[in-house]
């Protein structure tokens, strides 16, 4: 009971925090390795900051970003932002961890944030970690129900960060809805290698897979490979809602997306409350960190039973009834 | 063709290439709706306005100088090294291993060992291509490019496997990066609050040493002779194969050292993307610098300015990052084209003939040959 009350209190705090406007002007900077229109990782963060800016107005939230940042350039950009008085510098990617930890010492009054990571960093460093096993699990439930061949393909970028969580959640979801199904896991070794992702997807289809999934930007290559099988019952489950709207989206049954708005608002509110960092902000269905959407145009493959099972899984995860032991899954 | 004509020719080529670069960049900027004049101002002046900008230029110049020096040694010796990127990664792996697996040593011992390990790693990686060229006649362009791919995979393997920070495995983040190097393996920062490190001094000293080696020693003369005219060098009794391998190893060692310096001076742990394309940019810097240390150092600083200035434009002028890369490419293309024109006597002769100027007689002395870019003992 105590636990439930604590969870409820935390939820109320998050929701309350998420809706409070900044008390004073806040300057936010974003540093990304790809571009802010990459239909994936960087765009999700950029869109969230723009949404928060639109909500409170440009007079309260000032925003600037730097794209295509290699590690050495990211160091220059972060230094420039910090010395120009930006309050929050978000280095969007775990590869910037080294940079952030070094910068945190030099600019103690600036709040830095990087993710995905669950690290509890220095006093002026926030981390954020999408609990992607949740979206993976729901996609896995659907994949297990839809597969006829009992062979499912998973094209991951690397076995780390939120991708590792998504992949393992997906495997658990498949096992929950169809214990007989086999999940073939492969990694491209890159977050942006579309060509290799397509090749791996082709290999998995040739090996009998009739439902595939994948995470990060590179997954777009795998979806394109699936879309080449126009007349065959081969389906896709996405980790980005933007995939539903592209021409290849006709193969996607459903997709999940990150909504970083809750993270941005939490960063602003915590900073203005005097907390410069030292915390990890989780993203989950519970705090609105994920959005899940079915593709109503996909056709009869999306049955009422499939939809109901996915909705139930989502509800159970959101309410805390279902916990996903993703760390137990070994590849 | 007199000195006045040569000066005029040089001025015209430089002015034409600068105008071409400005025109190309202006068209691109106007096409994306950016303020072209403001962008040029930011690229060329903003980095020079404060200590931050000046030091960041030099931070980029350090690896460029080191790599370009190595490229110059190889090119001058008649072997084309396109593999500096891979050699840099091999150097970083070796330097990281030395720093992590030789703990407890004092800085005076550990830091030189780490830098030497970096040079050794790069040298060994380059030796493969040099030996293949010298012993089996394998085209060094193909072998060095292919070795880049292999080095990249090895680098990824080490960062995700044996050298990954144990903390990354404990927290489940899995970021491919090594543990932070011990402080005894760090290069000191020259100016507090900036990233400028003592690698700059190493680069300048090595530039002087490369000049002395190539132009003031017998071995350097033999290397250049092997590169200038292989058959004549062989006829003169020079062991061309030996010097080809030696030149490649020296070139790789410089790239490996550049990696070790970047590792110990800037990032202080091995991370993905640490090479930042310096292995390729270094080739352009070497060519722009006339394959001579006295040209390479200012060329590297100028490229550092271009890289940083172009990067600043997206923050201050809102120019899209992809356009920034196009801008950099246009400027580099114009610079290299101008440099090639200036170093090409036939183009100058052709223009002189069209203007009906008297032709200059061929070089008579070794000094004249040297002035034309040839050999000098």
Unreliably modeled segments of chain B: 362-377
Tell me which oligomeric state these chains represent: heterodimer
Structural class by secondary-structure content of chain B: mainly alpha
Binned, the helix content of chain A reads 40-55%
Describe it for me?
The complex is a heterodimer of chains A (331) and B (377). Chain A is an alpha/beta fold and 331 residues long. In chain A, 43% of the residues lie in helices and 20% in strands. In chain A, the strands form 2 sheets. In chain A, strands 2-1-3-4-5-11 form a 6-stranded parallel sheet, with helices on both faces. A 6-stranded mixed sheet of chain A has the order 7-6-8-9-10-12, sandwiched between helices. In chain A, helix 4 links the parallel strand 3 (88-92) and strand 4 (111-115). The longest helix of chain A has 18 residues, at 2-19. Chain A starts with a helix and ends in a 12-residue tail after the last helix. Mean pLDDT of chain A is 90; it is low at 6-18. Chain B has 2 domains: 1-34 and 319-372, no CATH class; 51-318, ABC transporter involved in vitamin B12 uptake, BtuC. Chain B is built from 16 helices and no strands. Chain A binds chain B through residues 33, 35, 64, 66-68, 70-73, 75-77, 79-81, 83, 94-95, 97-98, 102, 106, 116-119, 158-161, 164-165, 189, 327, and chain B through 52, 56, 59-60, 156, 160, 168, 171-177, 180, 193, 195, 262, 266-269, 271-274, 276-277, 307-308, 311-312, 314-315, 320-322, 324-325.
């Amino acid at each position: 009971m105590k636990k439930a009350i604590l969870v409820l209190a935390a939820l109320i705090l998050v929701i309350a925090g998420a809706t409070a406007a900044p008390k004073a002007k806040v300057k936010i900077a974003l540093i990304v390795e790809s571009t802010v229109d990459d239909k994936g990782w960087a765009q999700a963060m950029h869109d969230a900051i723009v949404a928060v800016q639109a909500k409170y107005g440009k007079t309260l939230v000032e925003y600037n970003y730097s794209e295509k940042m290699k590690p050495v350039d990211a160091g220059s950009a972060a230094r420039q932002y910090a010395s120009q008085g930006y309050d929050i510098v978000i280095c969007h990617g775990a590869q910037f961890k080294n940079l952030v930890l070094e910068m945190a010492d030099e600019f103690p009054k600036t709040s830095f944030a990087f993710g995905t990571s669950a690290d509890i960093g220095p006093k002026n460093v926030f981390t954020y970690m999408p609990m992607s096993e949740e979206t993976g699990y729901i996609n896995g439930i659907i994949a297990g129900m839809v597969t006829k061949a009992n062979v499912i393909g998973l094209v991951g970028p690397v076995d780390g960060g939120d991708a590792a969580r998504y992949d393992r959640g997906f495997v658990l979801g498949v096992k929950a809805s169809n214990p007989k199904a086999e999940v073939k896991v492969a990694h491209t070794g890159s977050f942006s290698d579309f060509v290799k992702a397509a090749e791996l997807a082709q290999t998995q289809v040739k090996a009998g897979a009739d439902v595939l999934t994948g995470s990060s930007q590179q997954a777009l290559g795998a979806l394109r490979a699936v879309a080449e099988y126009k007349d065959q019952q081969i389906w896709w489950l996405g980790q980005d809602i933007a995939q539903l709207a592209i021409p290849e989206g006709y193969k996607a049954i459903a997709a999940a997306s990150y909504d970083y708005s809750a993270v941005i608002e939490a960063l602003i509110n915590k900073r203005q409350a005097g907390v410069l960092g030292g915390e990890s902000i989780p993203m989950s269905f519970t705090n609105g960190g994920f959005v899940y959407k079915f593709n109503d145009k996909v056709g009869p493959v999306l049955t009422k039973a499939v939809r109901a099972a996915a909705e139930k899984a989502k509800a159970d995860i959101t309410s805390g009834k279902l916990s996903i032991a993703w760390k137990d899954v070994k590849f | 063709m007199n000195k006045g004509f040569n000066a005029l020719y040089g001025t015209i080529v430089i002015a034409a290439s600068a105008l071409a670069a400005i025109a190309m960049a202006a068209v691109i900027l106007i096409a994306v709706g950016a303020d072209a004049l403001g962008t040029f101002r930011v690229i060329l002046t903003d980095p020079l306005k404060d200590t931050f900008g000046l030091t960041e230029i030099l931070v980029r110049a350090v690896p460029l100088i080191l790599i370009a020096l190595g490229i110059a040694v190889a090119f001058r010796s008649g072997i084309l090294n396109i593999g500096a990127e891979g050699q840099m990664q091999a150097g970083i792996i070796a330097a990281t291993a030395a720093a992590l697996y030789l703990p407890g040593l004092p800085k005076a011992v550990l830091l030189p060992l780490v830098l030497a390990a970096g040079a050794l790693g790069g040298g060994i990686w380059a030796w493969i291509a040099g030996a293949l060229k010298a012993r089996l006649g394998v085209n060094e362009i193909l072998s060095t490019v292919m070795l880049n791919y292999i080095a990249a995979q090895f680098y990824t393997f080490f960062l995700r496997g044996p050298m990954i920070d144990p903390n990354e495995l404990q927290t489940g983040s899995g970021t491919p990066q090594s543990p932070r190097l011990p402080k005894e393996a760090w290069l000191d920062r020259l100016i507090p609050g900036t990233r400028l490190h003592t690698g700059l001094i190493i680069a300048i000293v090595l530039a002087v040493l490369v000049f002395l080696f190539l132009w003031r020693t017998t071995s350097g003369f033999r290397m250049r002779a092997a590169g200038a005219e292989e058959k004549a060098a062989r006829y003169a009794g020079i062991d061309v194969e030996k010097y080809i391998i030696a030149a490649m190893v020296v070139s790789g060692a410089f790239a490996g050292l550049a990696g070790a310096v970047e590792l110990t001076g800037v990032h202080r742990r091995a991370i993905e993307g640490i090479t930042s394309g310096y292995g390729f940019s270094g080739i352009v810097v070497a060519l722009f610098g006339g394959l001579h240390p006295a040209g390479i150092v200012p060329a590297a600083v100028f490229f550092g300015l271009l890289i940083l200035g172009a990067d600043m434009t997206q923050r201050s002028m809102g120019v899209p990052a992809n356009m920034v890369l196009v801008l950099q490419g246009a400027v580099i293309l114009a610079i290299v084209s101008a440099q090639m024109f200036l170093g090409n006597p036939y183009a100058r002769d052709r223009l002189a003939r069209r203007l009906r100027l008297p032709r200059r007689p061929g070089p008579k002395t070794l000094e004249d040959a040297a002035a034309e870019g040839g050999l000098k003992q």
